[in-house]
Amino acid sequence: MDEQFDAICLDLRQDKYTEMAARLDQVDVSTEVASAFDRERYHYYRGFAELTVEQRPDEAIFHFNLVLRRSFHMAWDLYAIIANVGMASAYLMRQDRDQARYYLGEATSYLTNFEWHDESSFQRLVWAHYQIALMYLKLEQPQQAITNVEAALRVVKHRASLYLIDVLYEVKGLGEQALLARTAAKRSLMIAKTLALVTHNQALQERLNVTTDDLPVWSDQVNGFS
Questions:
Q1: What are the backbone dihedrals phi and psi of residue 161, each rounded to the nearest 5 degrees, phi first?
Q2: DSSP secondary structure code for residue 154 in this structure
Q3: Which residues have a Cβ under 8 Å from the Cβ of 167 and sit 6 or more positions away?
């Protein structure tokens, strides 16, 4: 099960949602998902599958609620923490901005004190901050988006990693652009463009293949399941 869930997790972080859902469909819930931890992981990924592939926010909320209910007393549990990110995304899909903000606040507060100890938890932490930042952009709260990006960048630089660093600078620049901080935005987006060459991120290169003085509106630029 660890190998299966590791593959599913990788699909999610690489935005390969159809592949993620297909792997989940191969899991026999009645026989393979036996332990409490495996059930938690299953509902966590099933929630994101409902959100991204099926586009059914109510079903996603059902699965994320199961994760949060099982993990209520375990603030250290990153699956439970990021389930709050999923809940926020589901409510945003339902156009319920107040609930989306509530769950984003819950996720952010937990992530502030979360201590990562291995590569997997490090990547989940950074990915969560990135997704939260994207949602705050869609909620037209660019300063909150930048705050989450900067939190992620501190961890990435401490780890001396390139994980998501290119798109983090992209979101930082888009947030600064929304705040009309044009000089800072140009700098961040140029850094993102340079890093995209280093990371071979073709999609980001195409998004930023315009002059920084003539960038499209940020809402048309960001990706992510939200």
A1: -115, 160
A2: H
A3: 130, 192, 201, 204, 223
Counting beta carbons within 10 angstroms of the beta carbon of residue 136, is it exposed (0 to 12), middle (13 to 18) or buried (19 or more)? Answer: buried
Tell me the two tokens of residue 55.
């586009």
Residue 186 burial (CB count, 10 A): 17
Would you tell me how many other CB atoms lie within 10 Å of the CB of residue 209? Answer: 9
DSSP state of 180: T
> What digits encode the pLDDT tens for the residues 43-72?
989 999 999 999 999 999 999 999 888 754
Angle at alpha carbon of residue 104, lines to 101 and 106, rounded to 5° = 110
* pTM of the full structure: 0.83
Spell 139-174 as b/e; 16+ CB within 10 A means b.
bebbebbbbbbebbbebbeeeeeebbbbbbbbbbbb
Do you know the residue count of the chain? Answer: 226
> How much is the mean pLDDT over the chain?
87
Burial pattern 93-102, b for ≥16 Cβ within 10 A else e, equals beeeeebbbe
pLDDT tens readout for residues 85-129: 999 999 999 999 999 999 999 888 888 878 788 888 898 899 999
Q: Cα–Cα distance between 48 and 21 in angstroms, integer? A: 9
CB 67 within 8 A of CB 79: yes
